[in-house]
């Protein structure tokens, strides 16, 4: 940060010098070459003196009336010519001491105000946070430092700047990798505490805090862990860590149908290795469910459902790409929280989608609890579950549940 402020100071000094130097130079020249009498006024005085002389000569008889009139006209003509010439010339800037002082005060006031505005409106804190995090990442890769020494440096930085949510998150993930789950949970809690309530990362941090506590307590899903998963899912119903954690707890409690529901919900927002792990977990739960009761696996996928055919309006085809994410979900009429959802990609459309118990997001709520729901299909340009500017969507209201009819839903509306 010292380098930043030093750089700003140097640039400000250069800018002030560029503006102020010509004015100072002009002031010095005006002191060396003062102009005591205005040139036009001087010409008028000369005109009056010469006219007075002509009048005296005319009175003494040494100058005829005709000659006097002619010479007077000549004097007047010369005076007018001189006046016009002076008006056409560039004005001379004359600067007094009081004016110089005013300019100096303004030259100092402008950078001072700029510093104040930057301190109030700028992002110096964010820059300092980024620089400190980069320095800590460099220390992790420094072969001369042990991991414990690097962690000690980060903790010292967090003692100095406890509001650094990113720093707490880095410390928490490092503690998780070291299997220090209680310390990781405490660091995740600090990260969540210093994140804005509207931050899209908050749901994920709460989910990871719940996971750290779950492991720290030996795999016990107590009220504290459940409260954190609830907070996480209220902010993002498809938050993978919370849903995965609830699925693990259900599986270990031999509630295989419940585990399938949680992991199916998490799968709607998962990619890569995470998605593959969830699919493997779902398959294991199905096998356990099949072994326990032969008909239970089939029963788990039966129940309330909605069938919807998703297609794209031609007007948006040039504004979307095949790898963008599509969220298809059902929610109670007039509410924002979805109860079931499926995730896919644009290049899979058009397609028929079935929303049922397998894609339920909320453990205590399903399609079976409603006679009608609202359907929404949304293309997310960022891949986030939350709706954002630039997304495209289509929606239908009051769709009957468990109706064999396939509902057609067209994505056509741009979200601004």
TrEMBL record:
The record, for InterPro entries, names:
C-type_cytochrome_biogenesis, Cyt_c_biogenesis_CcmI, Ig_CycH, TPR-like_helical_dom_sf, TPR_CcmH_CycH, TPR_rpt
Q: What is an example of a Pfam family matching this protein? A: TPR_CcmH_CycH
Cellular component GO terms, alphabetical: cell envelope; plasma membrane
Q: Repeat: is it a keyword of this entry?
A: yes
What Gene3D superfamilies does the record tag this protein with?
A: Tetratricopeptide repeat domain
Q: Specify the signal sequence span.
A: none
Does this UniProt record's set of keywords contain Membrane? yes
- Give TM segment ranges: 6-24, 100-121
Keyword set, alphabetical order? Cytochrome c-type biogenesis, Membrane, Repeat, TPR repeat, Transmembrane, Transmembrane helix
Name of this protein? Formate-dependent nitrite reductase complex subunit nrfG
The primary gene name is nrfG
